[in-house]
Amino acid sequence: IDQLKGTTPTESIDFSGKSLGVASAIIIAACIAGNEHLKQLNLSENGIGPQAASAIADVLPKTNITSLSLASNYMGSDAVIKIAEVLPKTQIAVLNLDSNGICSKDKSIIILEKVNGGSPAEAAGLQQGDQMLLVNNRKIDSMDAVGAHKDSAQGSCKVARNGQEIDLAFIKPSADAALGIKLKNGMNSGLMSLCEAFTKAPNLTCVSLEYNELDEAATEKLRAAVTGITLKL
Hints:
Blueprint: H1 2-5, E1 12-14, H2 21-32, E2 40-42, H3 49-59, E3 67-69, H4 76-86, E4 94-96, E5 105-115, H5 120-124, E6 131-135, E7 138-139, E8 154-161, E9 164-171, E10 181-187, H6 189-198, E11 206-208, H7 216-225, E12 230-232
Parallel strand pairs: 1-2, 2-3, 3-4, 4-11, 11-12
Antiparallel strand pairs: 5-6, 5-10, 6-7, 6-8, 8-9
């Protein structure tokens, strides 16, 4: 405890593979806040989960940690987003997020991959790359949910485009007529947040995301977001 708090100064603490769990990791987060001596912290292979990982992220700006490993902790997208938010405010140069089940795609994010020319969708103003949010006031959180347009020959939809939400109306020849769109799942929000964080974190030199579920499109986007950073995929 004294080493975590910094009352017994130490630059490196290795808790890897200790089966700490959520509660212990949250206590560690509370202890390291304000520790000016700690530079390297290894919490890999502890199954701390998203709640504890988020707690760790919250205190990182209050530390001088330059090397952090959170590999193999079942963090999920929400914790990754939290880490991405604070990363530019930290001293972290080396970050390890290996084996955390970070996926390329989010099945609840529905993106327009294609809008057919001359279709009701094109006439309504829908565009390739739009994220579908609502159709006829029904939340779109799966491919099947887009079928809400089959309720009537005309209706409404809300999309996200370039950071703005846009309301549109569509008219079809009949209720069961196609809108004229092709859909795909959007990129995981955690990965999108990391891409943005990479461009804003001045101290970052190396990030490892090995053994996550990343497809070619995701790896290309991540590589495009880094300049002067070693990225291990």
